[in-house]
Design a protein that fits this description.
This protein has 177 residues and is mainly α. Helices cover 66% and strands 6% of the residues. It has eight helices and two strands; from the N terminus they run ααααααββαα. Helix 3 packs across helix 7, helix 4 packs across helix 7 and helix 7 crosses helix 8.
Length: 177
């Protein structure tokens, strides 16, 4: 029997190649609970910050679910409470929210009667923002929920000293990076 060189080369190559797994085998391996390997991702601060942010926001949303506030809306209400009469550009810039997104957020807060926009007496092109009575009441409830549930869980997880240290480190990154 004569075997061609091409057939011999193919047989040798097939013997060296690892067997390909079909899609079904890959799905079964994943279903067995094998964790994905993160590789360099686990060493990147930005990735870790984003993953932590997602978890923290998830918990925040659960805590204030009865009030239907997002972290950004809560932040706006807090700033308005501490800085009454400031204009929307100042609030948006402080929070790093783009103008179109901020206007849409204000529309939502205003439609719920949590804040009001008023023309500035000094500059009629500008709007100042104020909390309404309902906005102050919702903010008071939100602050209690955040302190007693959300922040309390974070402090329990990290410990008071690490909680404070993490706040300082994140503030440094935000201010100096």
């Amino acid at each position: 029997m004569t075997v061609s060189k091409a057939a011999t080369d193919k047989a040798a190559t097939d013997a060296i190649k690892p067997a390909r797994s079909n899609g079904k085998e890959a799905v079964e391996a994943a279903a067995e609970g094998a964790a994905l390997q993160l590789g360099e991702l686990s060493e990147l601060l930005g990735y870790s910050l984003k993953r932590a942010q997602l978890k923290v926001f998830e918990d925040f949303l659960r805590c204030v679910a009865p009030l239907q506030l997002t972290p950004a809306q809560f932040s706006v209400l807090l700033l308005l409470d501490k800085n009454p009469g400031r204009n929307q550009t100042e609030i948006a810039n402080t929070l790093g929210i783009l103008r179109p997104n901020f206007v849409a957020m204000l529309d939502g807060l205003e439609s719920r009667d949590l804040c009001a926009r008023m023309r500035s007496a000094n500059d009629r092109r500008s709007h100042i923002l104020v909390l309404t009575d309902k906005g102050r009441a919702v903010l008071a409830r939100a602050k209690k929920l955040v302190a007693s549930k959300h922040e309390a869980r974070l402090i329990e997880l990290l410990g008071p000293a690490n909680h404070t240290a993490l706040l300082e480190m994140l503030s440094k990154i935000a201010m100096e990076f």
